[in-house]
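Structure in, sequence out. Go:
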């Protein structure tokens, strides 16, 4: 049955892809500015950067890779209604989306580790609190890594 005849014509005009690209790159730029301010301030005060800065910057790099891949998918048609996308291009969009997923998932796991490192330095916690401070983000990183692996393991080859 041909469902395209039942779809209203305005559906073909909808495209949320440009909004997605704007949001991705505005927040990527804003977060880079904040990271630069944090690193610069810390370096000016302590004359060294911390390990948490590396984790925060690594998270930003993963986020930027995620955004770049999604931007490429938007240029192919991501954000449009599936009926408005050329069927020949659809597998490429799905492939790019699947490739971007692990970067997005791992991006969510790194900043909590940076926060745990920073809190450990600021609070001078007891050994029990250290286990809690590091245990939560480490378990999140393990879970996120497993999710990233499962995304690729669950993919079928698109011809």
């Amino acid at each position: 049955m041909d469902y395209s005849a039942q779809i209203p014509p305005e559906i073909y005009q909808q495209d949320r892809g440009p909004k997605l690209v704007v949001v991705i790159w505005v927040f990527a730029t804003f977060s880079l500015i904040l990271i630069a301010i944090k690193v610069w301030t810390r370096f000016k005060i302590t004359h060294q950067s911390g390990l948490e800065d590396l984790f925060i910057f690594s998270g930003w790099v993963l986020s930027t890779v995620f955004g770049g891949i999604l931007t490429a998918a938007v240029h192919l048609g991501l954000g449009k209604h599936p009926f408005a996308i050329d069927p020949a291009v659809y597998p490429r969009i799905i492939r790019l989306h699947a490739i971007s997923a692990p970067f997005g998932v791992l991006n969510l796991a790194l900043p909590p580790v940076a926060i745990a490192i920073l809190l450990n330095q600021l609070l001078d916690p007891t050994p029990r609190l250290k286990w809690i401070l590091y245990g939560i983000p480490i378990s999140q990183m393990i879970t996120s890594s497993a999710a990233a692996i499962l995304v690729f393991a669950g993919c079928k080859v698109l011809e």
